Amino acid sequence: MVNRRQFLLTSALLGSGLIATNSILKSKTNQYSAPGIITSDKMRPQIPYGVASGDISAEGKAVMSESERSPSKFIV
């Protein structure tokens, strides 16, 4: 038979394990998900002259170009 102390300890450990697992899984999948708001192509900044240069590093990516709106931020 399980006493009250063992029941509370076991349920607390299981509950905290489920919460920790859920938060870890959510943090890993949210990095690669699409943005919540998708705008139309006409509202997005365009690069009519092509890409001048680009750079890829461990921290991220950078694309240098001239846009019809300045300054603009692109998600690559």
Principal-axis shape: elongated
Give the CA-CA distance, first to last residue.
Answer: 59 Å
Q: Report low-confidence residues grouped into runs of 5 or more.
A: none
Q: If you average the pLDDT, what whole number results? A: 77
- What percentage of the residues does DSSP assign to strands (E)? 5-15%
Number of discrete domains? 2
Total strands: the figure is: 2
Sheet with most strands: strand arrangement: 1-2
- Provide the succession of SSEs: HEE
Rounded Rg: 24 Å
Share of helical residues: 25-40%
Largest sheet: 2 strands, antiparallel
Tally of helical segments: 1
> Which structural class fits the helix and strand makeup?
alpha+beta
Structure characterization notes:
With 76 residues, the protein is α+β, with helices and mostly antiparallel strands. The protein has 2 domains: 1-33; 35-76, no CATH class. The protein contains 1 helix and 2 strands. It has one helix at residues 4-30; strands at 51-56, 61-65. A two-stranded antiparallel sheet has the order 1-2.
Structure summary:
The chain is an alpha+beta fold. It contains one helix and two strands; from the N terminus they run αββ. It is 36% helix and 14% strand.
